Amino acid sequence: MKLIHGLVGASQLNTFFSDGQSANNTPYGEGSSYVYVPAGLKTITIKRASDGLVVGNLTVELGAGKAYSVFMAGEIEYFVTPRLLED
User: Fold this and answer.
1) For the chain, what is the domain count?
2) Burial classification of residue 21, based on how many CB atoms lie within 10 Å of its CB (0-12 exposed, 13-18 middle, 19 or more buried)
3) Using one digit for the tens of pLDDT, what is the confidence trace for 24-56?
């Protein structure tokens, strides 16, 4: 699992997974490194790194042995779209 950051209004994003894993300080316009997240039902929380503002939440079912990306797009306080993509 990795984060692709395309969200205007946040220079960096932090991503937290319900199993305790995280991907921190992903810069705008870039993707994080992959983080291992076990298969199953997961909650993903994305926060702006500067102040901890929650900018996205997803609850998803992850399949075993698959790679995923969370794509964050839009503009904070206007329109935010988190999407899960299978790589």
Assistant:
1) 1
2) middle
3) 999 999 999 999 999 999 999 999 999 999 999
Sign of CA dihedral 24, 7, 32, 58: positive
Q: Which residues of 45-82 are buried (b: 16+ CB within 10 A; e: fewer)?
A: bbbbeeeeeebbeeeeebeeeeebbbbbebeeeeebeb
State the pTM of this model. 0.90
User: Residue 30's closest CA among 13, 42, 15, 16?
Assistant: 13
List the one residue out of 2, 17, 30, 25 whose CA is nearest residue 86.
Answer: 2
CATH number at residue 10: 2.60.40
